[in-house]
Amino acid sequence: MATARVMDALEDKKVQMIVGGVTLTGGIYVAVKLSWFRKNPLRSFGGKTGAMAKTMVDKGIKSYNEFFDQEDGKGVGSRILSTPDFVNKFYSLITDFYEYGWGESFHFAAREKGESFEDSIIRQEVAIAENIGLKAGMNVLDLGCGVGGPMRNIVKATGGKVTGITINEYQVGRCNTLNQQAGLEDLTEIVQGNFMDLAKVFKGRSFDGAYAIEAACHASNTTALYKQVFQVLKPGALFASYEWLRTDQYDPNNKVHVDVVDGIAEGNALPEVRTIEDCVEAAKAAGFDVQFTFDRATLGAVPWQQAMKSARRAAYLTHVLTGVLEFIGFAPKGTQAVHTMLLKAAVNLEKGGDLGIFSPMYLIVMKKPLAA
């Protein structure tokens, strides 16, 4: 009898809504307690901290998807000159998602056995600083600095000063806030601008070095970007970049390979996916002497893509949550579509890493000649 009464009650729509609400709330509570989320999801998706007006999110994700739609490994084609505008739109849409789900450093790292995700991220950042010789008394440029996670870890580790540039206004505000909270205002600086126009943004200034952590991939033209870096560096200074590249295992005649890399580009605001040979050629054309290249994805006992696989439970719960919050009007229309785009990107990144056809951390280090 008791079972029958329970079953009858569950047929009531109001009861179903209450049970569903309690289940969702309980699921979120458990997820937060188990640290599946890095940030409070209600704060991230409530339209209160986001970079784009609530009424613009749906239109923004639709126009983004149309622009970055790619097939057959051809990139965005003739649309490539408009890339900066859509990269800016991309980060307006996803900055809160990234910070909420990944942390303040928007990049990957391979891990050593027993090493935490956070420690591997910091180690990856310190490594690039070491490759350009950053130390106290130097001021170096961080291209595409995001909300400044890497710059804060780097200045703590080296004592050097870092000046960051990002195209996104919202990221400038977040970066300044987080730098102040960390007490690092004296060693950090953040400038809004397009890194394809460095000579204009930093007119009359020169830096002791520069680095880009998984950011140069957004450039509409690698040679043009490297030339801009060349112009703002002092003679003898080093520039290091972690590049998102196709590896030599990529087969342009393999449809699976092509579709995976196209999917990576579409979900991460890349106008195209290049090779290390493309980057070396671009560096030489810009006037640099290439010091060395190395794929850091080959390091570590735990591959870089494992972090996404480990976060899959939180990702799927987030997807349900964004749909519910959008349905009740708490999150702006289009929020779940943004998360759908990020989920697809994550799947293709995992596949690219598993197949060995893609690396998000192919290191290239170059030097501006003393005589330049």
Quickly list its features:
single chain; 372 residues; alpha/beta; eight-stranded mixed beta sheet; 15 helices; 15% strand; globular
In short:
This protein is of the alpha/beta class. The protein has helices spanning 2-10, 13-33, 41-45, 57-68, 83-101, 117-131, 149-158, 169-181, 198-201, 222-232, 255-267, 276-286, 306-310, 312-327, 335-355, and strands at residues 139-143, 161-166, 188-192, 207-213, 233-246, 274-275, 289-295, 358-367.
What does this structure look like?
With 372 residues, the chain is α/β, with parallel strands linked by helices. The chain has 15 helices and 8 strands. Strands 1, 2, 3, 4, 5, 6, 7 and 8 form an 8-stranded mixed beta sheet that branches. α4 (57-68) packs across α5 (83-101) and α4 runs parallel beside α15. The longest helix is centred in the N-terminal third of the chain and has 21 residues, at 13-33. The radius of gyration is 22 Å and the shape is globular.
- Which range does the strand content fall in? 15-25%
Largest sheet: 8 strands, mixed
Low-confidence stretches: 15-20, 22-37
The value of Rg in angstroms is: 22 Å
Q: pLDDT average, as an integer?
A: 84
Tally of helical runs: 15
SSE-based structural type? alpha/beta
N-to-C order of helices and strands: HHHHHHEHEHEHEHEHEHEHHHE
Strand elements, count:
8
Helix share, percent: 40-55%
Distance between the termini: 89 Å
Shape: globular
Oligomer: single chain
